[in-house]
């Protein structure tokens, strides 16, 4: 089963983490299933950018981006060439290393 290494994030994963995820699972689902409360304002329907992650290792093992995801990513904070919406990035057989950006564009989030 592939492993997803999550780099430290001050709010969601201060010490970093490593979780296992079956192939065919989205990165977002894998994080949520392991109590890493990544934002996902649209309930994983590919309608926002709050679950944006940067895939530091294993990017090419993920499914291809579709046009909807590409268009949404253009609005994500801290966009990089290896950015993905974690709700749309499907884990294959390779291990991954992901970084959750410090900020997201979520106007509805409390504590702003």
Automatic annotation (TrEMBL):
<keyword id="KW-0813">Transport</keyword>
<keyword id="KW-0479">Metal-binding</keyword>
<dbReference type="InterPro" id="IPR012675">
    <property type="entry name" value="Beta-grasp_dom_sf"/>
</dbReference>
<feature type="domain" description="2Fe-2S ferredoxin-type">
    <location>
        <begin position="2"/>
        <end position="104"/>
    </location>
</feature>
<dbReference type="InterPro" id="IPR011536">
    <property type="entry name" value="Fdx_isc"/>
</dbReference>
<dbReference type="Pfam" id="PF00111">
    <property type="entry name" value="Fer2"/>
</dbReference>
<dbReference type="InterPro" id="IPR001055">
    <property type="entry name" value="Adrenodoxin-like"/>
</dbReference>
<dbReference type="InterPro" id="IPR036010">
    <property type="entry name" value="2Fe-2S_ferredoxin-like_sf"/>
</dbReference>
<keyword id="KW-0408">Iron</keyword>
<keyword id="KW-0249">Electron transport</keyword>
<protein>
    <recommendedName>
        <fullName>2Fe-2S ferredoxin</fullName>
    </recommendedName>
</protein>
<keyword id="KW-0001">2Fe-2S</keyword>
<keyword id="KW-0411">Iron-sulfur</keyword>
<dbReference type="InterPro" id="IPR018298">
    <property type="entry name" value="Adrenodoxin_Fe-S_BS"/>
</dbReference>
<comment type="similarity">
    <text>Belongs to the adrenodoxin/putidaredoxin family.</text>
</comment>
<dbReference type="InterPro" id="IPR001041">
    <property type="entry name" value="2Fe-2S_ferredoxin-type"/>
</dbReference>
């Amino acid at each position: 089963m592939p492993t997803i290494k999550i780099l430290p994030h001050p709010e969601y994963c201060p010490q970093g983490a490593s979780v296992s995820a079956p192939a065919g699972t989205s990165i977002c689902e894998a994080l949520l299933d392991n109590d890493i409360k990544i934002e996902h304002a649209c309930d994983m329907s590919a309608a926002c950018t709050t679950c944006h992650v940067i895939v530091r290792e294993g990017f090419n093992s993920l499914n291809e981006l579709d046009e909807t995801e590409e268009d949404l990513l253009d609005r994500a904070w801290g966009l990089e060439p290896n950015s993905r919406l974690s709700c749309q990035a499907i884990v294959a057989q390779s291990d991954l290393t992901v970084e959750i950006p410090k900020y997201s564009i979520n106007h509805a989030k409390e504590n702003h």
